[in-house]
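Researcher: I'd like a candidate sequence for this fold, 325 residues long. If you have to choose between options at a position, lean toward the conservative one.
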């Protein structure tokens, strides 16, 4: 008599950052969380300085792990200890996947911040970097002519590999960022090491990439989304991308996409770091002081392409949003 054997698959292990409520009490982690360590779910990750393990806030380094992020991951250069003590922040990654067949979903409460300062508020006490107003005169320290336009990079000097989300390992799953999720990264890239919001690299993504995540980058040679290895499915960008810095590119496609590339949001790339009104081009500078001319020259910086496609997109390109440069 024929018979069958039903194989029971072990459920995938997982880790989740959950919203903290009155009924729950999840921990806030202050160091790298690695899924291989089996840590319990938390409500947030807050790390002062570069994370100690693989420079990652959340390291997905064990196979068959499902990760859901519905809370903040913040990596910052200064402590909230009353005197804003600096902590060494060089390379940093918010979420990094190095293991096979792991998945990640960014829910609406997901926030990944890699910042130079204490927080993303507009308070001069919380910000550091070129937009820091140390003397409290209402203008950034690197706005010498006080016209509201930063002179030079919006990130602190130095070249550091900072990435919001980085897929390195082989992933046979879909990567999804829900509406309301966001990534903000401050940092300057160098050479092929671009500071970026999202990086797909090393091995192919066997699935699709669907991001309603809003991505904001501040610094030179940055990328909003950097595709360095192939995607077997489609890539859809539904969250706005805004990159500010010299040589910055909104979406950089450097490897093939089997499905379609669908851009359904604003993608903006500009060399101007900040401005309160539209920069004036071709104005008469004959009456300006030499220092003012120098300041204007340092403001005129060239961004890269909003969308740069250097590889095959077999399913075609569909643009349903604004692409600005």
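Model: Candidate sequence:
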């Amino acid at each position: 008599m024929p018979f069958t054997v039903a194989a029971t698959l072990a459920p995938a292990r997982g880790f989740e950052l959950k919203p903290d409520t009155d009924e729950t009490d999840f921990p806030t982690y202050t160091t790298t969380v690695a899924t291989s360590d089996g840590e319990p779910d938390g409500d947030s990750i807050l790390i002062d300085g570069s994370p100690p393990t693989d420079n990652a806030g959340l390291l997905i380094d064990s196979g068959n792990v499902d990760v859901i992020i519905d809370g903040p991951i913040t990596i910052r250069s200064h402590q909230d200890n009353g005197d804003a003590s600096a902590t060494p922040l060089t390379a940093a990654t918010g979420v990094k996947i190095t293991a096979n067949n792991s998945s990640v979903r960014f829910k609406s409460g997901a926030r990944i911040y890699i910042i130079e300062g204490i927080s993303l508020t507009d308070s001069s006490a919380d910000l550091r970097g070129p937009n820091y107003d140390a003397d409290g005169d209402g203008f950034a320290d690197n706005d010498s002519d006080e016209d509201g336009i930063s002179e030079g990079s919006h990130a602190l000097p130095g070249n550091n590999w900072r990435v919001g989300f980085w897929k390195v390992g082989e992933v046979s799953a879909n990567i999804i960022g829900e509406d309301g999720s966001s990534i903000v990264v401050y940092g300057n890239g160098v050479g092929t090491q671009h500071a970026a919001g999202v990086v797909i690299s090393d091995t192919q993504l066997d699935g699709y990439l669907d991001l309603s995540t809003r991505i904001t980058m501040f610094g030179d040679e940055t990328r909003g989304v950097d595709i360095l290895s192939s995607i077997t499915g489609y890539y859809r960008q539904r969250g706005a991308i805004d990159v500010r810095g010299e040589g910055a590119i909104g979406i950089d496609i450097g490897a093939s996409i089997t499905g379609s590339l669908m851009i359904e949001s604003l993608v903006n790339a500009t060399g101007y770091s900040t401005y309160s009104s539209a920069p004036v081009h071709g104005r008469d500078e004959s009456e300006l002081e030499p220092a003012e001319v120098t300041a204007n020259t340092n403001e005129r910086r060239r961004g890269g392409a909003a969308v740069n496609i250097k590889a095959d997109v077999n399913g075609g390109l569909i643009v349903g949003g604004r692409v600005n440069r």
